[in-house]
Amino acid sequence: MVWILSTLVAAAAQTARNAMQSSLTATLGTLGATQVRFVYGFPFAIVFLALVATTMRATVPAPTAQFVAFTAAGAIAQIGGTALLLAAMRARAFSVVTAFTKTEALQVALFGFVFLGDALTTARVVAIAIATCGVVVVAARRAEDRNARSLRPVLFGVASGGLFAVAAVGFRGGILALGDGSYVLRATTTLAWSLGIQALLLGAWLGLFDRTVLQRSLAVWRQSLFAGFMGAFASQFWFLGISLTAAANVRTLGLVEVLFAQAISHRVFGQRVSARELLGMAIVTAGVALLLAAA
What we know:
- This protein has 13 helices and no strands.
- The protein is mostly helical and 295 residues long.
- It has one domain (2-294).
- The chain is globular and about 45 Å long.
């Protein structure tokens, strides 16, 4: 079950990367912290691709029109999802915002079925539903806390999850469009293309409309470089996972990121987690366990 190991590594690395990007938001703003993931991650993706191609003594597959369309759609959706995620984190606890985005699991199952024909068994659908219910429990707030202002990070988080779902389906479509070669080479090629598209778009945008933020991101290059590496490293394993199984399976197992985020919230940011949130995390864990049993 290589996809299971790949997903667990990706979830852990992504949690670390999100924490780094969250801390960079105060310095660079939402868009500036977003571009760090892509601009600083792209060189590492090229290194990964060169290492894979050299080790396998294989030729990097040539892009097709279908590949470019799927990968570009995924790349653009991921930019939007990352920006909304960081915007939500400015208003709510790191672990709770992470939970909001994990409604992605249901959305990616639907998009994968519609656009790629990914089949899901009854057991897997039930597992996704249970895990998503756990996310809802984690994300729910007490009635007295609900007001117009508190709804904004909720909406941002759910919309972020939707865009991440589109991105996962787009990237899986791009990987599948490269044919029947090695899944490692196809996944790494798709990663390099996606980060290249994202670095180009965000770099051009900041260069034209917000050079101050671009200059600030260069000034904090040490933190940005490590965040970029962690982003590329996490994406490498996400892409390996979705090259081997339906994106819905990978993203549901990826809900363990909620547990990792809770640990970081407590140890790094000093944010307390309520008993209700712990209950929700236990439900997420149960859904993930059912998914693995059905795999």
